[in-house]
Amino acid sequence: MKCRICGQKAVIKLRQHNLALCEEHFDEFFLKRVKKAIKEYRLFGQSDKLLIAVSGGKDSLSLWDALVRLGYHVDGLHIDLGIGEYSIRSRKITEEFAMEHKFRLIIVEAEDFLEGYTVPKASQRLRRSPCSLCGLLKRYVMNRVGVEKGYDVLVTGHNLDDESATLLGNLLTWQEEYLRRQYPVLESTHENLLRKVKPLIYLTEREVAAYAVLRSIKYVEEECPLSRGATSLEYKSALNQLEVHHPGTKHRFLHTFLQRRPFGSAKSLQLLSCSECGYPTTSKVCSMCRTKVRLKESSHEIRTS
Ligand SMILES: [Zn+2]
Ligand SMILES: [Zn+2]
């Protein structure tokens, strides 16, 4: 197998592009795909202050590395969720990566936002699924920390596989509002809301993993232990099965949707400011602040019963 560009030994074959590439030309391909997303969707400019959410997985670390190589100013934000060994390892790997590359990393602990509870403990107390609580916490904390520290844009490492699986899930359940909001850039519509962007939408999970390996990026390989059996993983595997016989399926599925936007774009919701914390909400008090109140009540019940 030879690189289509230079004829040297290829290190990866990309069936959906009918392309084999050597190390050097795969690297070039990867950076080009990131640039393509930034340019096509006008995600951000060179003068923007970017904050990237880094979990310690391959997507966020690879994207951080690539954006800095492309000359952007990007700092990292890691949320320690308190999910046992998994979180300990994720935090350590993220800290080591930042230290080695001399990148600025902000670390936040879930306990500081959940009345002293970790994600698994809070989810038990509230009898609420850990994934839904974790999603709420991440959205809130990333935005709040970014706004407080003066960043313009929040960057996440969602790749082509993540986004096409989300699209499939939203279509199967006809979540029209989610379908309108599924886009590589969401503009800020409130003074305390960051613009949100996804520069990895042109790269598959496998391509991102290959980039991480070629760049010697150490990352956490396992999925979150609490997400085992999540339907999003089933959607991913269904799409990968289609991809085996029909290379390019995921890419066409997602990008035709993004070009056509058959459900229209997100309605600009009239966002209010939460009466407790001042961050955007559609009701009087935001869901994070309501969750905090319920946690406080639940620990009170335990003490008094
Ligand atoms: Zn080559
Ligand atoms: Zn609030």
Would you mind describing this structure in some detail?
This protein has a single domain (31-269), classed as Rossmann fold (3-Layer(aba) Sandwich). The protein has helices at 23-40, 58-69, 84-101, 119-126, 130-148, 160-172, 176-181, 205-214, 231-245, 249-260, 287-304; strands at residues 12-14, 19-21, 49-53, 73-80, 105-109, 153-155, 185-186, 195-197, 272-273, 280-281. By secondary structure, the chain is of the alpha/beta class. The longest helix has 19 residues, at 130-148. A hairpin with an 8-residue loop joins β7 and β8. The strands form three sheets. It has a six-stranded mixed sheet with strand order 5-4-3-6-8-7, with helices on both faces. It has a two-stranded antiparallel ribbon with strand order 1-2. The chain is built from eleven helices and ten strands. The site of one zinc ion (ZN) has 8 residues, from α1. The site of one zinc ion has 8 residues, from α11.
Question: Over the alpha carbons, how many angstroms does the gyration radius reach?
Answer: 20 Å
Number of strands: 10
Distinct ligands, ions and cofactors found in the model: zinc ion
Number of helices: 11
Q: Give start-end ranges of low-pLDDT stretches.
A: none
Output mean pLDDT. 95
User: What class, by secondary structure content?
Assistant: alpha/beta
> What CATH first level would be assigned?
Alpha Beta
> How many domain units?
1
Biggest β-sheet, characterized? 6 strands, mixed
Architecture (CATH level 2) name? 3-Layer(aba) Sandwich
Q: CATH H-level name... which superfamily?
A: HUPs
**Percentage of residues in strands:** 5-15%
CATH topology value: Rossmann fold
Q: What characteristic shape results from the CA principal axes?
A: globular
Through-space gap between termini: 69 Å
Order of helices and strands: EEHEHEHEHHEHHEEHHHEEH
